Every structure is written in structure tokens, then in C-alpha cells.
Amino acid sequence: MTATTRPARRWQRVDGVVLLDKPAGMTSNAALQAVRRLYAAAKGGHTGTLDPLATGLLPLCFGEATKFSADLLDAPKTYEANVLFGISTSTGDAEGEVLARRCVEFSQPELERALASFRGPIRQIPPMYSALKRNGRPLYELARQGVTVERAARTVTIHSLELLAFSGQRCKVRVVCSKGTYIRVLVEDIGKMLACGAHLTALRRTAVGDLTLNAAVPLSVLDSGGETVRRQALLPVDTLLQNLIPVSLDAPTAQRFLHGNPVTLSETKLRNALRGNDHYEKCRVYYHDTQLLGIGALDFNGQLKPVRLLAAEQKFS
Question: Residue 8 contacts by C-beta under 8 Å, 6 or more apart in sequence?
């Protein structure tokens, strides 16, 4: 081997979830690839993009966990956002060029009233500086070339919008929102309502569904902490599925379910699973409460249909 030749990386099967506290200045994909290399994981993905400016919770999925990453895409997201009023930028955040400066003359009660008007379903026009594509090209590429194209407004939901701090031109808010919400656009629209403009100066994601930043690990800790730290940070595949009701199967039923066949639950198990509901329920399915098989859809007649399954090489005894 010559001095310039590096040994080929040996990728391995890694199954699990890492809750990463993403640093600022890094794309979500770059963060994913950095963690993937640390684990030498053959397959990986993330559960929703964070802008490079943003920090905070980025759930990363490896191996079999990637089958369930889509289930978090629709989960509500929680952010803490720092806002500067009186200055509008080309990107809606601190990385853009200043477009306009205006006086800030509103009071805290006026700000509170403005925030109240954005709670619930709202319409947003996606920003040009976004990863949405037009004719196969990301909008941010067009924006960098000075090209602006029309974007259709779409409905998102602001479940909660809370003022955490306010001082002069600056405030901090906590936002709980639906999939597809652009916090930069929300901040810009609040600034427009207050007739002074605004942009985002910092953004931190603190929760994705039931997953919170409290359990997240910074990239620097994963990088420097060694195998023990990385092993502890790799959480079970069903970490992504804690919002789903659990159903446990015995060996013969588990075998049938894992091979893609619907199974019928006993009346007792059905009653426990549906918890008084009379409609189809998604659930996480186990063999003997501990061995995850996948996701199933359960109807009121007790039929459990496979929706998404783990690899069928598991053993039952």
C-alpha cells in the first residue's frame, strides 16, 4: 500500500437511532454522513431537514430504523427561534443580505396580538431559499442566480406560538408546528404584520414528535467519546415508534405476521390495543413484548395487517 492509498472503509450493518444535537453551520446531510462514518454504518437516513443555520434535534436512522423514518416526517416539530425586528434579509435569516431597515415601534401587547393571529392553520408561501424543486432544480440554486419563480401557498398548522422573551428589537418564541412549516417565513410574516420587517437570527429544534433534545448527543461528543459513548448513543429501532400503541404476539402469530400475512388478535388483546377507539389504528408490533417486528394496522374486528416490517430473519421459540 503506497503512502497515498487509504484502506477501503468497511461498512457494517448498524440498526438503531441516534438523536443528534446538530451544530450550526452544517447541513443535515453532512451531519448524517459524519455520524454514519463514525459508526461505519452501511445504511442511514434522517427524519427531516434542519437548515445549516439551525441547531438541535436531528433524529438519524441506521439500518432497519430507516424503514420507519417516514413516520416522523409527519410528526409535530418544536423550535425556539430568536427574532430581530426592523431588518429584512434576502433569505429571511441572518445569513442573507439586508434588504430593508425600518423603525420598531410596537409594544409587547401588540406583539402578543400579532402572535395570536398566527396560531392554528395558516397559509405560507415557501421561500426561494429552500430545497423545494422546480423542474428538477432546488429553488435555492435559482435564488443564488437572482431568479425568482412563483410558489404556491400551502396550509400549515401552528399548534402553539409562545413568547419567551422580548426586549426592544428582539424576541424569542417557542413554536410547535406541523410538517412543512418554514420558521423563517413565519418570522417574516410576523414582521410584516407589525410593519417593521423581521428575520431569524437563531433557530433550535427541541423536539420531533415525542423525541426531545434532552436525549440528544452533540456531534463533538460522538466524535471524541469513543466506542463506549457511541454504543450508548445508539438507541433501539422502536425509539421512533413510541407514539404508536404496542401489540404483542406469540411465536406462531409473530411468524405469520413477519412474513406479510394478516393475523387476528384475541378479544382481550384487541380491547387493550384499541383502548375504546372504533377505527383503524397503527401500532408497533412485538414478539413477547420485546422483539420488534414492525408496524401493523389494526381494525375493530381484530385483524392486524402488516404495514412495514423488519427483516424476516428473526427467530422465535
Answer: none
CA triplet 253, 67, 23: central angle to 5 degrees? 140
Closest CA to 223 of 55, 11, 21, 10: 21
Domains of the chain, start order: 16-74+211-238 (3.30.2350.10), 79-200 (3.30.2350.10), 244-309 (2.30.130.10)
pTM of the model: 0.88
Q: Quick one: which of 129, 126, 125, 127 has its CA closest to 145?
A: 129
DSSP string, 133-144: EETTEEHHHHHH
Is the separation of the CB atoms in 149 and 140 below 8 Å? no
- C-alpha distances in angstroms, 185 versus 75, 128, 133, 210? 20, 10, 18, 25
List residues with catalytic annotation.
51
Continuous segment of H or E residues that includes residue 297: strand 291-298
Q: Answer whether 289's CB lies under 8 Å from 273's CB.
A: no
Helix or strand (DSSP H, E) at 110: helix 108-116
Note down pLDDT in tens along the chain; length 317 residues: 455 555 667 899 999 999 999 999 999 999 999 999 999 999 999 887 888 899 999 999 999 999 988 878 888 999 999 999 999 999 999 989 999 999 999 999 999 999 999 999 999 988 767 667 777 777 677 767 777 777 788 999 999 999 999 998 999 999 999 998 999 999 999 999 999 999 999 999 999 998 999 999 999 999 999 999 999 999 999 999 988 888 999 899 999 999 999 998 887 677 666 665 555 678 899 998 889 999 999 887 788 999 999 986 666 65
